[in-house]
């Protein structure tokens, strides 16, 4: 008699395990898709950030390269070669410590005290690179825009 109860108990536990598996598998699959989608988004974000850094590093090497917008764009696009639809916007600007803007690489000095001389010297030049890419998730997720605009901006001082 004890043996019969054990057999009945094992059959009901086997049915419970099948029901648990039927509930858990779709949830696990959904979690895998969500994780894969967010991993793709992070990969796009890191790639776009690296492309902006590569372009701004190229332009910050000297004054001539800071004005080479096509070269900056090409370096950035080469760094993000595995992504489609990458848009690069290079720019450069110059400023002075007194917050005045000057023409880049002109003979015009900045005004203001610096070391008691009364003039700061030539303006500081910067390269500004913006890289944008549109990310399309695998599925439309609630609360997350579809598509997602991934944008990175990097500023570097010209040497």
Compact overview of the structure:
By secondary structure, the protein is an alpha+beta fold. The protein is built from 3 helices and 5 strands. It is 46% helix and 23% strand.
Structural account:
With 159 residues, the chain is of the alpha+beta class. It has one domain. Helix content is 46%, strand content 23%. The chain is built from 3 helices and 5 strands. The chain has helices at 2-59, 63-66, 69-79; strands spanning 87-95, 110-111, 119-121, 124-135, 148-157. Strand 2 (110-111) and strand 3 (119-121) form a beta hairpin. The relative contact order is 0.17. The mean pLDDT is 85.
Task: Return residue spans where pLDDT drops below 50 for at least 5 consecutive residues.
Answer: none
> Overall 3D geometry?
rod-shaped
Strand line-up of the largest beta sheet: 1-4-5
Residue share in helix? 40-55%
Radius of gyration: 29 Å
Topology:
Layout: H1 2-59, H2 63-66, H3 69-79, E1 87-95, E2 110-111, E3 119-121, E4 124-135, E5 148-157
Antiparallel strand pairs: 1-4, 2-3, 4-5
Name the descriptors.
single chain, 159 residues, alpha+beta, 3 helices, 23% strand
């Amino acid at each position: 008699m004890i043996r019969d109860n054990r057999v009945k108990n094992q059959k009901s536990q086997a049915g419970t395990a099948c029901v648990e598996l039927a509930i858990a598998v779709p949830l696990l699959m959904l979690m895998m898709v969500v994780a894969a989608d967010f991993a793709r988004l992070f990969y796009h974000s890191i790639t776009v950030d690296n492309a902006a850094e590569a372009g701004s590093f190229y332009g910050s090497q000297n004054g001539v390269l800071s004005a080479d917008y096509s070269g900056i764009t090409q370096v950035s696009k080469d760094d993000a070669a595995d992504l489609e639809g990458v848009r690069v916007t290079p720019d450069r600007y110059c400023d002075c410590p007194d917050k005045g803007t000057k023409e880049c690489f002109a003979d015009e000095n900045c005004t203001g005290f610096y070391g008691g001389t009364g003039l700061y010297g030539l303006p500081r030049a910067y390269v500004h690179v913006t890289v944008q890419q549109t990310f399309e998730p695998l599925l439309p997720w609630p609360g997350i825009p579809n598509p997602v605009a991934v944008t990175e901006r990097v500023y570097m001082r010209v040497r």
